[in-house]
Amino acid sequence: MPALRRDRLLTLLLLGALLSADLYFHLWPQVRRQLRPREHPRGCPCARRAASPGPAPAAASPAPRAAARNFSRAGPGPERRGGRGSKLQALYAHPLYRVPEEPPLLGPEDSLLASQEALRYYRRKVARWNRRHKMYQEQLNLTSLDAPLQLQLDASWIQFHLGISRHGLYPRSSPVVRQLLQDMRRSPTISADYSQDEKALLGACDCTQIVKPSGVHLKLVLRFSDFGKAMFKPMRQQRHEETPADFFYFIDFQRHNAEIAAFHLDRILDFRRVPPTVGRLVNVTKEILEVTKNEILQSVFFVSPASNVCFFAKCPYMCKTEYAVCGNPHLLEGSLSAFLPSLNLAPRLSVPNPWIRSYSLAGKEEWEVNPLYCDTVKQIYPYNSSRRLLNIIDMAIFDFLIGNMDRHHYEMFTKFGDDGFLIHLDNARGFGRHSQDELSILSPLSQCCRPGSGC
């Protein structure tokens, strides 16, 4: 019996020793690490590098310094300080965009506008607008306490126009684009009207300065309190709606959000050939109907059975109330694209796309049936002696990414000659089918860049 008790005692002592050893060597070090302040282990060289102050990223190489100025100059705003910056800001901070600035402008021939000439032109436009507005007020026996408009030389739209060069519509480091987007989103409107090409279709204006006739999409020109202008394209369908499978590309509705997305993609790809575009909720009553002087535009407004304010296009195509757009009851979402400089200041050339589509319910163009079509294009001026063909291939790649089959013309500033960049205008028929790639859009690339043929 005493021997049995001694065995139990030894067992208890052994278990106690094991428990004490576990507490001392395993649990107690963990408790100490939790209680004492955190510190880096002595043997970790990476911790010492992180703790020691090092040279600023800007001093490491010239490339990151250039990246800090790229695109939007995204500073440490409230969202970024909180660690929740926008996805676009995070994208532009990626090392992919840490590229040197574009070559410097060598002289006046590299800038689209001569600044003094442009400012004189804009001053005359403002004075003319003030005179016409005063006459309009007098004809209607209206009194206004508003002071005449004054041209603000630091207005974002003026700086945008003055920044256009042979490298693109805006410099890579320009802070103007961000300000221009904010101004278009917030500035009050002082007038609304049809675009010049829609007026041409109605026979209401001189067509000599029109680049190309309008399509079937309802669009308006809005002028803001700083005298800047933007093209307004209203929301025609819900965001989730895709192009029906039985629709031809030329009868599909255009999408306001496609214009916005195309601008951002063009900017990400560093083309900088799409005018700055932003979304906005527009009060169609206060910001269009009450500020327009166009009687035709005033006549197409009506109130729907759901008590929403609506308007429709007065044009040779979709001129029925079935195609109207309506507010909710007054607010209507749409896109605003910044206007380019006047054709009087910066003439543009409109050229049919060599890979234009047939725009008919049957029949095909030559490029659709002839795989060697590009060999013929390469023999034609200016595609045989300039960068024009390469620019068309760039445009085709951009159109493929946005799914745009509606590139029947392209435009370019005449000042920069045959090697000037193509302006990627009118992208509202993009993003129609997110789940389908239309490979025919890449025909300029596939036909011109065959093995052994060069590009």
Physical arrangement of strands within the biggest beta sheet? 1-2-3-8-4
Low-confidence stretches: 38-83, 199-216
Largest sheet: 5 strands, antiparallel
Estimated helix fraction: 25-40%
Assembly context of the chains: single chain
Gyration radius from CA atoms, angstroms: 31 Å
Protein architecture, described:
By secondary structure, the chain is of the alpha+beta class. Helices cover 36% and strands 11% of the residues. It contains 17 helices and 10 strands. It has helices spanning 2-35, 45-51, 57-60, 62-67, 78-81, 87-92, 115-139, 156-162, 176-186, 196-201, 256-268, 285-289, 295-299, 366-369, 373-377, 388-402, 443-448, and strands at residues 189-194, 220-224, 229-234, 277-283, 301-303, 309-311, 325-326, 331-338, 348-352, 409-413. It has a 5-stranded antiparallel beta sheet with strand order 1-2-3-8-4, with helices on both faces. It has a 3-stranded antiparallel beta sheet with strand order 5-6-7. Helix 8 packs antiparallel against helix 9 (176-186). The N and C termini lie far apart (102 Å).
